[in-house]
Specification:
Elements: E1 4-7, H1 33-36, H2 61-85, E2 94-97, E3 104-105, E4 108-109, E5 116-120, E6 125-129, H3 132-135, H4 142-158, H5 161-167, H6 173-197, H7 206-215, H8 230-243
Parallel strand pairs: 2-6
Antiparallel strand pairs: 1-5, 3-4, 5-6
Helix pairs in contact: 2-4, 4-6, 6-8
């Protein structure tokens, strides 16, 4: 069971990269058509809609939760018709706010970060622990993007991508890492696809979006490569935002060089 999470400011985002024919080969090709040829990819760009940000204030937990609830409402309104258009099932995500994540949640160990967001596929719930790092600066676009990314995991679950990814078997640690990165990078890209569908957001500029992209964290040297390098994350993020189309988020068919 791969529990999907965002802890602290470790958000991720993405865009296609260039490479030679040799570099573009996939070291560990994924053959499951549910992952590589999913109906979601052929559903076309998300319909343009409007999502109004509610006012927030630093340290006002109630307003921050109301802000996030409104973003999740926008996400439901946008993704429901898209999933149905693709002939995929739909059900709303559950959202809950907790003071402290338990040490064990949804079959996995959580982190000790003060701010955390997790998606559990067992009950299709996004759980958010709003700590100081998120409550101190709630008025940038980070929280909006956070909600978009977390909902992307729910989209992946409904589209069958989540379960198909879970069922993959890896012949080596390197292959296991790459499969993990493909899943995380897909959520980064799909989150950005939604962002494009509601762009422009009143009071926001492209600079606000680029700030979110620059904030994207990635695997650092010496760390286990579960999420992707920062440049890779930012690349997929920009791809999703540029097109607004889930078809640009097919990380499962991408060559290894683009999910490093």
């Amino acid at each position: 069971m791969k529990l999907l999470k965002i802890a602290a400011l470790a958000c991720a985002l993405v865009v296609p990269m260039t490479g030679t024919v040799a570099a573009d080969a996939s070291a560990f090709p994924v053959k499951n058509p549910v992952l590589t040829k999913n109906a979601l990819y052929d559903s076309g760009p998300l319909a343009a809609t409007t999502c109004t940000e509610l006012p927030v204030e630093a340290w006002d937990r109630g307003k921050v939760q109301a802000y996030l609830d409104e973003v999740f409402r926008c996400l439901e309104n946008t993704w429901e018709p898209q999933l149905k258009k693709a002939g995929l099932p739909y059900e709303p995500v559950k959202v809950r706010y907790v003071k402290r994540m338990p040490k064990k949640y949804c079959g996995s160990s959580t982190s000790d970060e003060e701010s955390q967001a997790w998606y559990c596929d067992w009950d299709r719930t996004v759980s958010l622990q709003l700590g100081k790092s998120w409550l101190a600066y709630p008025d940038d676009l980070f929280l909006f993007n956070l909600a978009s990314q977390m909902y992307a995991y729910h989209v992946m679950k409904l589209a069958g991508l989540y379960d198909a990814g879970e069922e993959l078997r890896a012949g080596s640690k390197a292959e296991n890492y790459e499969q993990s990165r493909r899943a995380y990078l897909q959520s980064d890209c799909l989150g950005a696809v939604f962002m494009q569908s509601v762009w422009p957001i009143k009071g926001r500029t492209t600079a606000d979006w680029e700030t979110v992209v620059r904030m994207a964290g990635g695997d650092e040297p010496g760390e286990e490569p579960w999420y992707g390098k920062r440049a890779t994350i930012q690349s997929w993020m920009r791809a999703g935002f540029r097109t607004g189309d889930p078809g640009s988020c097919n990380t499962w068919a991408a060559p290894s060089s683009k999910v490093a």
